[in-house]
Amino acid sequence: MLKDGSAAAIYGVRGSSGVIIITTRSGKAGRFQVDYNGSYAIESIARKIETMDAAEYRTLPGAIDLGGNTDWLDVVTNTGKTTVHNIAVSGGNASTTYRASFNYRDAQGINLNSGFSQIIGRLNITQKALNDRATFSLNFATTTRDASYGFTEALRYAVVANPTLPVYYTGAPGLTNIGGYAERDIFDFFNPLGIAEKNKNEGKDKRLLMSIRGEYDFSDVISGLRAAVFYSRQEENDLRGEYYSKTSKFRGFGRNGLASRATHTRFNELFETTVNYDKTFGDVNLALLGGYSYQYFFNEGFGMEGGNFLTDAFTYNNMSAALDFANGLGSVFSYANSNKLVAFFGRANLNFKNSYFLSVSARYEGSSRFGANNKWGLFPAVSAGVNISDLVSIPQVQSLKIRASYGRTGAIPADPYISLQRFGPQGFFLFEGNYVPSYGPVSNPNPDLAWETKDEYNFGADFAVLNGRLSGSIEYYIRTTKDMILPVNVPVPPNLFGTTWVNIGELRSNGFEFQADYKAISRPDFSYDVGLNFSSAQNQGGEPYFRRPELWRRRGVVSCEHGRSGPERHPTGAG
Question: What is the dihedral sign for C-alpha 41, 47, 48, 52?
Fold first, then answer.
């Protein structure tokens, strides 16, 4: 995992929260091989929230005894069970290698009626050509998951439920029979088991990831020169369905059955091309990287909710049976949005005698999510280190490297159209005897909306002592986040909407991290390692921009200073 700013800066916005590098397994040249492993696991609640049992509750003054004796947390939970099967085949020869794997996982959750069944398939193929100067790699992965999510509300009401409340209706005073479950006619309470058993909360997820990479070694033309082209495509589809029974007090009873159905689709494709140059000149190794990246995102979805069913038999699979739609009480939504990321990046690594290290990188990245005046950001980084143990002999010290680095990363808004003037439904108005839908502004434009940036300084040391049995690192960091993207309340008028997204605020943090690993026992037939991690952090807010209206103007916000109001307008047109 890459955490410090200098290592993450070249990844742009994707590196803002750190970078996790994952290397998937691939086939090896040799004979055909089959691998299998499986596992079975059980889960249980290690520590429950302490609640009164029925006997303890009955001793309270004013206790309402409903005649039961129920441990509600026990009623709505069970022992979780997970079964996993993995099988893989691999093989190949000097020019072609392959690996195909299949994973099946069946999990039953601790929460009643929760769990999922999942199938994952992977395939990767590597082919060499043109006297091994060209290498082509194909990766394909697909995931299908059927899940039942249960209801966290069942846990919530289990914690607050009267322990003398019976699970099922007994006819005792103070109880109401709804669907056979004992319910109470009080505010904000539902039978926990009735929530879990009478209703459905289900979904199906599908994931498809495909990538292809081609690389060519130009060493016959220029020693150490390589170039690569990469393309990937990812598709995600989530299908959700909820149904609340006509005989469930929780949401369904008052609506005579309530159903919702929604689908969400996410798509993105990435194209990258890179050029690498790696050459050693005596004691100096020079590695250069340059590249271009283009990524396109598209999201869309559709959903509806309606109630008043003649029967529970359809659940959420026949939304047209909900009479709410005929009566104008149902709701429907749909959406679609897209955005792009484009970047140019480069990096230079210098290694002298494998003892002195220097790295410089920069990424110039643009996103369509920002205002027209600030779509691009520059994210530089520099790091240096020296291996002291190569220069000075220290007893019992096998490795000691000190390092320092600086890096800047950026963050983008969650909404792709957050900098634009947008319009949305604003109710209905009467026109010539008919109610006509109206639209009005739902946001203010901010063409000056810019990147949120994070500057990070790291100072650290990596060590290995006692013949390598004890190793670890010590690090101190200073991190400053500027131009945070936050909503600010603004006056109406002169603004058309009461909130504008702007770059305001600053957050500074610093901390210390220590990590060590000790090989207590290291034998061919048995090993035992001990690890220790320690970290501390301190956060401090920077200057509150909202007290400086002149900065609002610079960031595209119109304000009424000192109580003034009127037709004042920002030069960019905001307000």
Answer: positive
Pair of tokens at residue 390: 């190569």
- Cα-flanking dihedrals φ and ψ of residue 383, to 5°? -145, 150
Distances (CA, A) of 66 to 158, 186, 196: 16, 14, 22
**Token code pair at residue 22:** 């994952």
Burial of 115 (0-12, 13-18, 19+ CB in 10 A): buried
Residue 555 burial (10 A CB sphere; 0-12, 13-18, 19+): buried
CA-to-CA dists, residue 183 to 177, 188, 209, 293, angstroms: 6, 11, 48, 59
Give whole-number Cα distances, 435 to 325, 429, 438, 503, in Å.
Answer: 17, 5, 9, 40
Strands 506-523 and 470-482, by their bridges, are: antiparallel
What whole-number distance in Å separates Cα of residue 567 and Cα of residue 575? 9
Per-residue pLDDT of 118-168, as tens digits, reads 999 999 999 999 999 999 999 999 999 999 999 999 999 999 999 999 999
**Separation CA 532–CA 202 (nearest Å):** 41
Among 156-165, 172-181, 425-434, the range scoring the smallest mean pLDDT is: 425-434
> Distance between CA 575 and CA 444 in Å, rounded?
7
pLDDT at 548: 45
Among residues 468, 462, 463, the alpha carbon closest in space to that of 518 is found at 468
**Rounded mean pLDDT of 9-30?**
69
* Cβ proximity of 125 and 103 under 8 Å: no
DSSP state string for 204-259: EEEEEEEEEEEEEE-TTTSTTEEEEEEEEEEEEEEEEEEEE-TT-TTTTGGGTSEE
Strands 356-367 and 176-178: unpaired
Answer yes or no: are the C-beta atoms of 24 and 124 closer than 8 Å.
yes
3-state class of 5 per DSSP? helix
Paired with 521 in beta bridges are 528
Query: What is the pLDDT at residue 551?
Result: 44
* Contact yes or no for 350/359 (Cβ under 8 A): yes
For residue 307, which of 260, 261, 241 has the smallest C-alpha distance? 260
pLDDT digits (tens, 9 = 90+) for 179-194: 999 999 999 999 999 9
Q: Does an H or E element contain 182, and which?
A: strand 181-183
Question: Average per-residue pLDDT in the chain?
Answer: 89
Whether residue 245 is predicted with pLDDT greater than 80 in this model: the reply is yes
Tell me if the pTM is above 0.85. Answer: no
Any residues with CB less than 8 A from the CB of 28 and at least 6 apart, and which? 90, 91, 92, 97
427, pLDDT greater than 60:
yes
pLDDT of 7 over the 90 cut: no
